[in-house]
Structures are given as structure tokens and as C-alpha cells.
Amino acid sequence: MIRLSAIAVLGAQWGDEGKGKVVHLLARDAAMAVRFNGGTNAGHTVVDAEGTFKFHLIPAGALYEDCIGVLGNGMVIDPWALTQELKALVRWRESEPEIFISREAHLILPYHPIVEELEGAADQIGTTRKGIGPAYRDKMARTGIRCADLFDPELLRGKIETNLNRLKRVWKESQALQTMDAVALAAELLELLEPIRERITDTAALVNRAVDRGELVLFEGAQGALLDIDFGTYPYVTSSTTTIGGIGVGAGVPPTKLDRVIGVTKAYTTRVGTGPFPTEEHGRVGERLREIGNEFGTTTGRPRRCGWLDLVALRYAARINGFTELALTKIDVLSNFDRVRVAIRYELDGKPLGDFPSSSWELERCVPIYETLDGWGEDISRYRSRDKLPSAVRHYVDFIAEQLELPITTISVGPAVMESIG
Ligand code: IMP
């Protein structure tokens, strides 16, 4: 059997790279789109002729009629948010999407965001306040509630009760926790998820079968390499594996089955939340990038921190993920600059640094060394062919490709799906 393609689309920076758009471009021909990490902290925006749709839990590929959406075991799912998103998607598509949810995926329950606030992580790390960290902690502590537990109401009630009682003992001052009732919560959960209970299944088997049959399957990463729990700028990271290994642990598909690994990067850099960001621009350049690029969070609406493209960080992301190619998004945003800068290496304490440092404290002290390239001073959103792009744009794209030794197979020149150069 010749496999058509199993394609991973992964964020190469700190999230918000435009993965939703890249997935949407590919999903037209896909049989299946799979999410394998994160939860409602993610926000994938898809813009097409009909308007804008913002995904948080459901894979963006599921916008298409024939594309099955899979929520893999590595996700943490807020059942209330999922129900809302499903309803919105049905309205948008004017038909029921075919969605499957892993039995092993964990649930975010109302006590998780409360604990996140009480512990102060929300402010210290600048999280999305969706309860992601506490839900993944329960998973690792082996006390989490999994989708499979919905099939055994008594077990579900007991597990919620044990978790809630533990939290009530720790957080005596929290009225919100003290008044939460495990039995009522379990009942609400069962009622809420009853309509989609039959969609809860062994998704690892389902996805592997599709890949083995040779169907086009897309793996849709959430967040980006530098927010990875292991390889990101810890502790200013999310709580899941955002890099390629996440597909193995979060969807049950070994990375050896992947044919293409697309790293998605903006033509500049953004970050939301706290943590080191060597190429951040605090002045007018940062403001202009934010304004022109509309850099405000899909999930929280927070203004994103903005700066120039960082090739040191991208080289690191490429190595960890084994990118086979890059998709370069939002290059049109740079049209308004006379000159554009790209960080090509770092210096630490006046000495050149060979690699992206694994410690956030070291990264904090790194000074980026820039290459300055000519800007192009014209709107490029109408271009559809690479050859016709102004030479300064082509030079910018070629410079990145050469530095990273990777082909750039997609260039996006505007938010809409049609505003892309393949
Ligand atoms: P959490 O995932 O809500 O725990 O947040 C941890 C860190 O990851 C914070 O800095 C968030 O701003 C960041 N983060 C989480 N999800 C996304 C995303 O989809 N895009 C960009 N940043 C994110």
C-alpha cells in the first residue's frame, strides 16, 4: 500500500504562527485532522470566503465536509467548551461534523481553572487561565478524569468526589471550591456529554488505520516548540508536548509514519504571557507589528509581545522536530518597514553562543545579533506567484531558507486561505 501522506503541522515559535490557516489549506483533500495536545488554550483562526471561525478544541480541518476531526488522547478537554464549539461548527458548516474523541483524553473540570488562579500560576506564567496546568497535573498524578470514565457513572462520581475533597482540604478559604458538589457535577457532566458519548472511542486505532490505509491525515499541533513542556522556555511553557513527540504520545501514531513535518513560523516573532524573548521590540517597531499584524490573542484577547524573526530559535525548533519544510506566514505584515531585521545568532556575556540555550535564565541574558535586509515598501497581499513577488521579499524568504537549510513550501501573504503562495 502506498501511503498518500501523514502530515504534521507544528508551531515553530511560541504559538500563534498561523497553523490554522496552513491546516485549512491542506485539509481540503484530507480524510482526517487530528489534535494531539493542549485544550482550550489553543486558538486556531480560519478565514475563508464565508468569514472567520475560531477553533479551540476541534481540529481546524473539520471545517471541511469530508474531513473527520479527532481529539486525541494527549488533549485536555473542557466539556462545556467542546459542546459550545460543536454547536457553533454545526451552524457554520450547516451539517454535523464527524468528530471522534479519545477514551483516554482527560477532562478539564470547573475546579481546574479555580486552582490555577489560587496557585498564582495564571499571573506568574501568564497562562490562558483555562485550567490546563492543573488538568495535566491530575493526569500525571494519575488522579485525572478521562473520557472513558463517563461510561461508568459510579466510578466517575467517586473520582470527582476524591479530587474535590482533596482540593477542599487544601483550599479552605475558596468559597467556589467549598460550594462545589461532586454528585451534581458528575450528573451535569453525564447529561452534557450524553449526545456525544458514542463519539468517544479508541482514536489511536482509528487514526493509525487511516494512516495505514494511505489516507491523507493531518496532525494539528497546538502552541509551538518554545512552549513545549520539555524543550520550551521552562517554566514559561504550556503543560503538554507541542513538538513532534506529542504525536506519538498524544495520538498514538509513531513519528516514523509521518511523511512531512511542516514547521509553521511567522515572518517575525510573537509571544503571549511571561518568559524570555530575545528579539522582542519594546518600542515603535513592536507596536507597529502588533497593530499591523493584529497581534491580539485568539483565546484571551491579550496583546501579544512582538519582535523580529529569530533564526536561532527556529534552528532549535527545526532540530527538535525534524521539520521537512517550513510555512512562512504573515509576511505581508512586514511590508510597512523600510528595513527588516533577522536574528542570526546570540551572544551571551559578550561571547558567541552556538545553540539556543536550554535554560530560560540564560536565554534571558542573550543578546541577538541581527542581519538587516531591505524592506519592500509595497502591499504584497495580492500576489499569488512566488516568481512575481518583489525581489526584496524573495530575498527575505531565500535568506531564511538558506540559513535554516529548509525549503519554504508555503508563503502566506494575508489572513484568508486564498492569500497564499504554494
Ligand atoms: P497555559 O497553556 O494556559 O497553561 O499557558 C502557558 C503559557 O503558554 C502562557 O504563556 C500562554 O500564553 C501560552 N499559550 C498557551 N496556549 C497558547 C496558544 O495557543 N498560543 C500562544 N500561547 C499560548
Give a structural overview:
With 422 residues, this protein is an alpha/beta fold. The protein is 33% helix and 21% strand. It has helices at residues 19-27, 79-93, 111-119, 121-126, 132-140, 153-170, 175-178, 182-193, 203-212, 245-251, 284-292, 311-321, 360-364, 391-404, and strands at 6-11, 32-35, 44-48, 51-55, 68-71, 76-77, 99-102, 106-107, 200-201, 217-224, 260-266, 269-271, 305-307, 309-310, 325-329, 339-348, 351-353, 367-374, 408-412, 420-421. The strands form five sheets. It has a ten-stranded mixed sheet with strand order 9-7-5-2-10-1-11-15-19-20, with helices on both faces. Strands 14, 16, 17 and 18 form a four-stranded mixed sheet that branches. A hairpin with a 7-residue loop joins β19 (408-412) and β20 (420-421). The mean pLDDT is 94. Inosinic acid binds next to α4, α5 and β10.
DSSP helical segment count: 14
Mean pLDDT: 94
The largest β sheet comes out as: 10 strands, mixed
Strand content: 15-25%
**Rounded radius of gyration (Å):** 22 Å
Q: What distance separates the N and C termini? A: 28 Å
Strand segment count: 20
Helix fraction by DSSP (H/I, runs of at least 4): 25-40%
* Ligands present: inosinic acid
Side-by-side strand order of the widest sheet: 9-7-5-2-10-1-11-15-19-20
Low-confidence runs of at least 5 consecutive residues: none
Task: Provide a compact summary of the structure.
The chain is an alpha/beta fold and 422 residues long. The protein contains 14 helices and 20 strands.
Fold topology:
Layout: E1 6-11, H1 19-27, E2 32-35, E3 44-48, E4 51-55, E5 68-71, E6 76-77, H2 79-93, E7 99-102, E8 106-107, H3 111-119, H4 121-126, H5 132-140, H6 153-170, H7 175-178, H8 182-193, E9 200-201, H9 203-212, E10 217-224, H10 245-251, E11 260-266, E12 269-271, H11 284-292, E13 305-307, E14 309-310, H12 311-321, E15 325-329, E16 339-348, E17 351-353, H13 360-364, E18 367-374, H14 391-404, E19 408-412, E20 420-421
Parallel strand pairs: 1-10, 1-11, 2-5, 2-10, 5-7, 6-8, 7-9, 11-15, 14-16, 15-19
Antiparallel strand pairs: 3-4, 12-13, 16-17, 16-18, 19-20
Bound molecules: inosinic acid (IMP).
Residues 14-16, 41-43, 125-128, 130, 132-133, 222-223, 227, 236, 238-239, 272-273 line the site of inosinic acid (IMP).
